Amino acid sequence: MNNLYENRKFAISLTLILIALIFIIKLFYLQILNTSYRLSAENNVIRYVPQFPARGLIFDRNGKLVVHNEAAYDLMVIPSQLEVFDTTGLCEILMTEKEEFIENLKAARAYSPYIPSSIIKQINPKTYAKLQEKLYRFPGFYVHTRTLRKYSQDIAAHLLGYVGEVTEKEIAKDDYYKMGDYIGKSGIEKSYETDLRGQKGVKMYLVDVHNRIKGSYQNGRHDKDPVVGSNLTATFDADLQAYGEKLMQNKIGSIVAIEPSTGEILSLVSAPGYKPSLLVGRVRSKNYLALARDTLKPLFNRALMASYPPGSTFKTLNGLIGLQEKTLYPSMTYSCTMGYHARGLTVGCHDHRSPLNLPSAVQISCNAYFCNVFRNILDSGKYTDIHESFDAWRNYLLSFGFGQKISLDLPNELKGFIPKTSYYDRYYGKKGWSSLTIISLAIGQGELGITPIQLANMTAAIANRGHYFSPHIIKAVAGRDDNKERFMKRHNTMIDSIHFAPVIQGMELAVNGAPGSGSTARIAKIDSIIVCGKTGTAQNPHGKDHSIFIAFAPKDNPEIAIAVFVENGGFGSTFAAPIASLMIEKYLKGNIKKNRKWIEDRMLNTDLIHGEQKK
Asked: Which 3 state secondary structure label does DSSP give 446?
């Protein structure tokens, strides 16, 4: 009996010892070997506060600072730490509506009583200075620092773009971002977001059960400093950009200026525009809504997204194609009797001397001449039918960058439109159309849709005698010119360089021809600079025709190529040509000569939107 009792006692003791041993081993594993629970516990008492880096600065091509940063502050709240406070007084300091403040506070409480929430965002330094003096009166509130964009000049909104809060869609694309972060939404800010944004840092704080900060976690050993974003050097000239925007005030249209030898964009103006400072800080949402509702569409980047018929500027390209196809020679003449007449169809033209050769036809902008050129290209007999000859003609246009994106480093570029044979087959049937059916293409009308950036690029290709470099807006990232390699690929057109001379001669005569010679762009003439240009007047079914002008200068070793569109501006020589010439003179000479000040005054003071001329 005693043996049985002893055996039971031993078994129970052994069982208790084994259970105790198991618990000891388990506790040793959980507390010493396995760190997951320790980390989880620590996470419950650690607050991770992101440290936002300053975005990179943006300089113009001459090293002038264009975009920098200004400190801004988000007012944060931990609802559980709030005490009774003067809501009205706080709202007066913050210059915010009391109703909005209370709604934000309710949302913060609903989200979590213990986790910090942003209640008022992007407080400016002046307001913050007032708040900081009295923040002690408002327990539960604290300020989180970030930066906002600041502009040395209120210019180039469409080029620079703006920064806004990330959306859920943007977060899904890139896990770098969290709700409340900011991201480039348009322009350079969007295209170069990963360079400009830098890298976020973090500070770790110990907090108590009520989420109140008790100090730095392990003396900041695990903190990570933010990395400031990379600075960018842009290709545009800030002074030229500002001047272009002044010239386009109270007008609708665009200016695009390019350096032909590099493809660098010297100026890109879309009018009407807006001040970039309008889309910064707490006023951004309100201002964006007002701009979006504006019937003049100031947010719409006409330089990249508007599509126009190129008008008579397109005659230069048809002339080049005719020369390449050997259906045209520089000395070949055609007569003009107030237009082109064939099978009962007439394409009208203005009164001028006749007959004309190619340079004179460019100089005077004869419609009849280029109708003949166009039909000879398509009906030369070199191709089996109109489909094959039209495809060949269209391929020349594609080689100049039309009908496609031209690898621009700005977002929202459109392709424009160059019709295919299938387009005409759909309307007329496969055998129902001919060169005469589409004769309007000879003079840059009809179905063509060309963006201003594409027309400026074509002008650069002519200036270069047959090649271009993709237009771009950034020349260096963080001081390195490695961005240069991306854009220095030479794009050769399908036109041999030998064919450009007679067309360029005609463009030179259009600007510098003798008085009474019929030159269409003499108003663009600049003393001591040989400007080569071509006017265009694009028909507009909705009102007055559009004024267009392309030009480059100087004739030899050109430094600037430009395209100007002024909607409802009438003839190319009325507004587009003077504006282009002023831009050229400003860029090459730095100022406008006295004998041309009257042109500048007229461009600055004419209001085409409201139909007025300022005095």
From this structure: coil
The CATH number of the structural domain formed by 47-234 is 3.90.1310.10
d(CA 434, CA 375): 9
Using CA atoms, how far residue 436 sits from 76, 127, 218, 418, 555, in Å, is 70, 69, 83, 18, 35
Model confidence pLDDT, tens digit, residues 69-109 = 998 888 988 888 888 889 999 999 988 888 989 998 998 88
Residue 126: half-sphere exposure toward Cβ, Cα within 13 Å: 2
Strands 612-613, 606-607: pairing kind: antiparallel
Q: What is the mean pLDDT of residues 209-226?
A: 78
Residues 78 and 63 sit within 8 Å (Cβ to Cβ): no
* pLDDT, tens digit (0-9, with 9 covering 90-100), for 43-74: 457 877 788 899 999 999 999 999 999 988 88
Amino acid at residue number 156:
A
Under the banding of pLDDT at 50, 70 and 90, the label for residue 210 is: low
**SS3 assignment, position 518:** coil
Domain 238-274+302-608, CATH among 1.20.1730.10, 3.30.460.10, 3.40.710.10, 3.40.190.290 = 3.40.710.10
What the block records as the tokens of 512 is: 């510098």
Compare 348 and 611 and report the one with higher pLDDT: 348
Helix axes 315-325, 367-378, angle to 10 degrees: 40
* pLDDT above 90: percentage of residues in the chain: 69
Torsion on CA atoms 500, 502, 506, 512, rounded to nearest 10: 90
User: What whole-number distance in Å separates Cα of residue 65 and Cα of residue 247?
Assistant: 23
pLDDT in tens, 360-380: 999 999 999 999 999 999 999
Residue showing tokens 């169809």: 345
The yes-or-no verdict on residue 41 having pLDDT over 50 is: no
Q: Is the pLDDT of residue 5 over 70?
A: no
CA 45 to chain centre: 45
Residue found by looking up tokens 């990395």 in the block: 227
Helix, strand, or coil (residue 589): helix
* Helices (H) then strands (E): counts for the chain: 22, 22
Q: What is the DSSP string of 159-187?
A: HH--EEEPPHHHHHH-TT--TT-EEE-SH
- Which residues in the chain are classed under CATH 3.40.710.10? 238-274+302-608
CA–CA gap between residue 78 and residue 101 (Å, rounded): 14
Is residue 39 predicted with pLDDT exceeding 60?
no
- Residue 555 sits at φ, ψ, to 5 deg, of -60, -45
Rounded (5°) CA angle 371-374-375: 85
Which residues fall within 8 angstroms of residue 279, CB to CB, at 6 or more apart? 157, 162, 164, 287, 288, 291
Q: Where in the chain is the domain with CATH 3.90.1310.10?
A: 47-234
The two three-digit tokens of residue 423, written as one number = 């387009």
